[in-house]
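So, can you check?
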Amino acid sequence: MSIDDFPAGVTSSTCGVFQAESCRSDRRGKLSVIVVLHNVIFYCIATWLTLGCSFLQGGYQWRLPLALQLVPCIALVSLLPLVPDSPRWLLMQGKNKEGLEAIRRYLGKGLSIDDSIVQSEYHSITGALLIERESQISFTQVLARRDRSSHLKRLLLGCGGQFMQQFGGINALNYYFTIILINNIGMDELMARILTGCNATSYMISSGLCFWLIERCGRRVLMLSGLSLQCFAYIMVAISIALLGSAPFQSTIRQANIRLFQWGIVAVSFLFFYYAAFGCTWGMVPWVYQAEINSLSMRSVGAAAATATNWLAGFICTQFTPTGIANIGYRFYIRTNGWIVFAVFNLTFIFVCYFLYPETAYRTLEDLDVYFDRDSNHPTIIPIHDKVSKQSKRPLEAIEAEAVRVAATKAVGAKGVTEHVEDIDGTV
């Protein structure tokens, strides 16, 4: 493990949680997309930088890329002290004044602490903390599913989203895209590197489109449509590479070269198509979803577990991909010993998302606590007729529950509601 792995892991686990806890529900998806989009932007820059540095001689080939990483690092370290903590974290720590001020700052410009929007948000959060406080539990009890907030189920949903992202096949292409173009499609190294940069650019553009799609379409629509398109892309890549492999059997060398060129274009086109579909759907949604789905007391634990799942699943995919390509060629993209690999993973995940993953768009984080409460009428497996779990607009039951929560909090006051609500470290 390199020295930069630890801060990278901490950052990827923390940023999404901080973003989710600091945003209004109608902005949370868009702002979270901006955070993840920076990762794709710098991936694109790194791809072109790799191509450029390949023409350099000596130590500049590796010193220049390493030195340039200091630029965004210095900018972040300089600006982070100006950013207030998450209001939900501050209230949970008993810092009422700081939490109220953070809410005021994050809700928009020109608001005062006494503004009705600020006070309503404050009472909604503290009311949710008061409800959770009534069921202080240990992490052992969470694993035993004895809590009222379905912490384990929510944690598994966050981890499952990251698992599906990786086993949808993205890093199997990310790390070996150039090798695939050279070994499986027959391109020369320079053209393969140029196309890798072009693909990274289109990937960045499609990821940016998610900024407009994630709130309008909702998380579920993007997940389901993304899986369908990714499955289709993998099937078409497998078919085109299979037909490309039969080119040498043509009657003349000219016909063989034409066939290689034609099916090579088809294969590359659908590889680009896969990245475009992934970028505006699964490239963004799992990172947003894992930060939204967990309760306040489990959000940091859930985000850390989901991020660890992402890295672990990505490691597994990157380990078996080279062996698969070398030993079974085009069939690696669609089947091994009669079983479909990435294409069927994507197809299977469609049913998983449809029946297990509720919509989180336009819900406050406290709305999701109510949805997963053991006294709610929402089962683990989402019925086909359950509109509340699927609609992208904020459901009426969430609005009514918030009104009741705010009224109750105002009635009893804020005394004691900012204590830590559920002990997940093993003590009660």
Notes: The CA atoms of residues 126 and 414 lie 7 Å apart.
